[in-house]
Amino acid sequence: MSPTVPHSDVADTVMERLTATYATAADPQRAAQAQAYMKGVAPFLGVPAPLRRVLSRTVVAGLPRPREADCAAVALRCWELPEREYAYFAVDYLRRHVKRCSSGFLPVVRHLVTTVPWWDTVDALAAHVVGGLVTADPKLTAAMDAWIEDEDLWVARTALLHQLRHKDATDTERLFAYCLRQSGHPDFFIRKAIGWSLREYAKTDPDAVRDFVERERGHLSPLSVREALKNL
């Protein structure tokens, strides 16, 4: 069941500005190229990232800091629009304001992760939004323990990547356990995420990652091993 979109005056203003501003910068040729690059996951307006960020600043200029309900309304309403740039705006908005959201926001993020999913939105939501929520409320690790078991590969990928920016605060035991739990997964995006999460943690504790990979090499896919050890 999809989350209910809360009423939000802030979201009303954001969406009115956003759709008007982004539409003026649409470029059909770029849109076709972007859609092809993203394997047709969604249509695009064709707004390049640097310009999109400039336009986004004008969209939110002068607006008050959002409440959690505002964040939910903006994200869910952006996700209802077909063009992918609106989802990018929503992800950036949540990244900026994740500290305004409580642990109760996690079901909204799960909806975003599982609706029109692809790495371009899922990875940022995992590292910057879900990771931020778990940092603020460690009790959400129980939810991550459930997500790593999920049949939806994007939910499991989110669990694998949610500690990507935690550095010294990484729960190493949980990270390694998650990698082992999904080590036999046949999908490229899970195997890549295992390697990526290990490679990122190797910047903090290279010896721990090296030892883990050598110990569990028989369980990890060659792709995961290669990605994990890329910088070691």
Task: Briefly characterize the structure.
By secondary structure, the chain is an all-alpha fold. Helices cover 65% and strands 0% of the residues.
Give an account of the 3D structure.
The protein has helices at residues 9-24, 28-37, 49-60, 68-80, 84-97, 106-114, 119-136, 141-147, 153-161, 172-181, 188-202, 206-216, 222-228. It has 13 helices and no strands. 65% of the residues lie in helices and 0% in strands. With 232 residues, the protein is an all-alpha fold. It folds into two domains: 1-101, Leucine-rich Repeat Variant; 139-232, Leucine-rich Repeat Variant.
CATH architecture name of the largest domain: Alpha Horseshoe
- β content, as a range? under 5%
Helix content class: 55-70%
CATH class of the largest domain: Mainly Alpha
> How would you spell out the order of helices and strands?
HHHHHHHHHHHHH
Uncertain stretches: none
What is the tally of beta strands?
0
The number of distinct structural domains comes to 2
- Return Rg in Å: 19 Å
What is the end-to-end distance?
Answer: 44 Å
Principal-axes shape call: globular
Number of helices: 13
Instruction: Summarize the biggest pleated sheet.
Output: none
What structural class is derived from the secondary structure elements? Answer: mainly alpha
Q: Write the CATH fold name of the largest domain.
A: Leucine-rich Repeat Variant
Average pLDDT taken over every residue: 98
